[in-house]
Amino acid sequence: MSQDDAGELQTFHWMMDMLQSVDVGIVVLDRDYRIRIWNGFMESHSGRLPSMVRGKTLFELFPDINAAWFSQKAKPVFELKTRAFMTWEQRPYLFKFHNYRPITGSEPFMYQNITLAPLVSSTGNVDFISMMIYDMTDVATGKKQLEALQVWQTEEQERVSRV
């Protein structure tokens, strides 16, 4: 093995380690929505090992995900090689994971932003897409608390003005 090959192999291992330990869910799906990659974030929050999910469809494992809706979101990613986004404000979550901060967190589940991105092969085809799942629970909780405070303040101002 040449020194260049050894360096590339080392870089590959670092990248794989980083993908497993990053605090973002990473899932790679094929055109049949079969799971190919399932990183540590997903394992930790779902309780399912990569070996348990690999090769199964997203919809087999998570039947509460609407297959028609998700396919409609993923279609332009495969066909047009463009990204697609789902925000917690449109849909609170795709995967109903428990909030992992039950003592400090006031929400029972994790709010999520999702990015679907094409994985373009060397031939220019998109046979796989990546799904990145971001935990937005702290942001969602803060926004909900701010909105509740604004409602309370408005009601309090109305009450005071009536007196």
TrEMBL record:
Question: What SMART domains has UniProt attached to this entry?
Answer: PAS
Cited Pfam families: PAS_4 (PF08448)
- Domain of life from the UniProt record: Bacteria
The cross-references to CDD domains, in alphabetical order and at most eight, read:
PAS
Which protein, by its recorded name, is this? Answer: PAS domain-containing protein
Any idea where the PAS domain is?
13-79
